[in-house]
Amino acid sequence: MSNKIAVQIDDLTVAYNYKPVLWDIDLEIPEGVLMAIVGPNGAGKSTLIKSILGILKPIAGSVRIYGKPYKKQQALVAYVPQKGSVDWDFPTTALDVVMMGTYGSLGWIKRPGQKEKKAALEALEKVGMLPFKNRQISQLSGGQQQRIFLARALVQNASIYFMDEPFQGVDATTEIAIINILKELRKAGKTVIVVHHDLQTVPEYFDWVTFLNVKKIATGPVKDIFNDDNLTKTYGINYKVSIQE
Amino acid sequence: MDVSEYIKLVFTDYTLRTITLGTAILGAVTGMLGSFAVLRKQSLLGDAISHAALPGIALAFLLTGTKDSHVLLLGALISGLIGTFWIRSIIKKTHLKSDTALGLILSLFFGFGMLLLTFIQKQPNANQAGLDKYLFGQAATLVESDVWMMAIVTGICLFVLLLFWKEFKILLFDADYTKTLGFNTKFIDVLITSFIVLAIVLGLQTVGVVLMSAMLLAPAAAARQWTNSLGIMIVLSATFGAFSGVFGTAISASQNNLSTGPVIVIIAGVFVLFSFIFSPSRGLLFKQIRFIKNRRDLQQHKTLAFMFRIAETHDNISHPHAIKILNNFQGFTKSTLQQLVRKNYVKIDGNMWHLTEEGFKTATNLYNQQEKTND
């Protein structure tokens, strides 16, 4: 972890219709952390990520990636959406989906070539999906689909990775495979931000955590702030987690 | 008229050739663009657009007084685009869901269009007749310049499709992700939608407001059954659309008084029906066959496994047992037993059965396999 700030959020407020989903969020994410965003359903976790990535338009506030607006820095950022956000019956193959990760660097009109294909195959290899490269995506299991999404982000070779519940509905093997890849990314100096639901695994998987419930409750190193006090503030009921030393 | 005579006529008769070409091109371009509508789950958009085009036709006539199809279709295009634009802004700016917005625009525009049509029909001048052909289409009114226009639009459409192939594909699959990569998704979206509107407007003269959406959806729905590749799906869809046009025209030309538009739509429907039933991977027929086969295999395996467990307890596997004990412990059917005999897994001698060497081996393998998957 360095002293650089990878993502800087100031006064971010987002509302659907009239209801605020995120309220006045100030958040600094240091470079090189593996950070979990935790909070109850409807806390605005996905919304926070989508606002950072410019998918949603905030009604106030600013987001900076390494000091500049997202639009100028999108080459540095990769996104893994929720698995359920797309139609997996779409007529395409696993390799084809992973290739989409190269589209951003290709820009308009230019088609992917051998170089892009090679990068996509390497990413498939990394997530253990190479044998399934020509599989129609509807014939993949939930865990395999998640791995494909991860591979698509890996192809982007970004500095900052945003992942929306990558562990949702995957089996233990896939979960371990994914977290190992995330830890590898951190080791390579990348910043990884994950919307996460399983509080039990936070201390084991992550080194940084942000508690969110419409407002930002707390953010910082897991060992300092992942405690009953913040959990209670975030989830509204008395929480007891035992943190293994 | 037999088939060869008809084919000869297609090449020699000016009117028939024009109509056949026109409907074929129309089918191809709507099939092509329809794939996008279907994959974006905007199937009903086509229906709304075609209905929204009707007031444009009527207004164009009222303003200009001509019945020139190009002028009327320009009116249709404008009003279709306005309808589409309104649908988009209703979805974006209100709490209403897209089906509500589509239904609302469809019926409001169509109602307004019908109102204008009846108003026009009450007018005293003699020029007004024939506008109602845009309701159900009248392919016989196609002239060479119409076909040229269709061909040019199809050409442009194909060019744009190939140029932005990558962008179209990724937007269809994952719009949010496309945005994060820095693509202007609104531009791609407007491009696709504009071409859909254009294709629909081109078809109004031939197929009509009411049936136009079928031209968009049916070939695409049929094509989806046969392939898991977007490119092949679009080519197939265009082919199905073109053949619907050609066959539809042929049937309506050889049978008197059958209007072309509805026949084309019905042919497209036949393609859909055929695809739903006979597609190897998604079709109902093969699904049912696979289901029956699996069930039969499972039944055989069950019986075989049960016999194996009995035979296992004896040193000699060909030790005969009564058929009755199968009955007592486990339901089995005569046909299952007969199938096992036919496969030479089991031998039956009167009321007794015993496993063959081969049957025993197969059953052992079944067990091993099961244990492996349980691990």
Show the helix and strand layout.
The complex is a heterodimer of chains A (245) and B (375).
Chain A: E1 5-16, E2 19-30, E3 34-38, H1 45-52, E4 60-65, H2 70-73, E5 77-80, H3 94-99, H4 103-106, H5 114-126, H6 142-155, E6 160-164, H7 172-187, E7 191-195, H8 202-205, E8 208-213, E9 215-221, H9 222-225, H10 228-235
Helix pairs in contact in A: 5-6
Chain B: H1 3-12, H2 14-39, H3 43-52, H4 54-64, H5 69-93, H6 98-122, H7 133-136, H8 144-163, H9 165-173, H10 175-180, H11 185-204, H12 212-224, H13 230-254, H14 260-278, H15 284-312, E1 321-322, H16 323-329, H17 334-342, E2 346-349, E3 352-355, H18 357-374
Antiparallel strand pairs in B: 1-3, 2-3
Protein name (chain A): Metal ABC transporter ATP-binding protein
Pfam family, one (chain A): ABC_tran
Family (chain A): Belongs to the ABC transporter superfamily.
Structure description:
- Chain A: This is Metal ABC transporter ATP-binding protein.
- The complex is a heterodimer of chains A (245) and B (375).
- Chain A is of the alpha/beta class and 245 residues long.
- Chain A has one domain: 3-Layer(aba) Sandwich (Rossmann fold), CATH 3.40.50.300.
- Chain A contains 10 helices and 9 strands.
- In chain A, a hairpin with a 2-residue loop joins strand 1 (5-16) and strand 2.
- The model of chain A has no long low-confidence stretch (mean pLDDT 92).
- Chain B is mainly alpha-helical and 375 residues long.
- Chain B has 2 domains: 3-279, ABC transporter involved in vitamin B12 uptake, BtuC (Orthogonal Bundle), CATH 1.10.3470.10; 285-368, Arc Repressor Mutant, subunit A (Orthogonal Bundle).
- In chain B, 76% of the residues lie in helices and 3% in strands.
- Chain B has 18 helices and 3 strands.
- Chain B has a 3-stranded antiparallel beta sheet.
- Chain B is elongated and about 100 Å long.
- Chain B starts with a helix and ends with a helix.
- Classes of the chains: A alpha/beta (245), B mainly alpha (375).
- At the A-B interface, helix 4 of A face helix 9 and helix 10 of B.
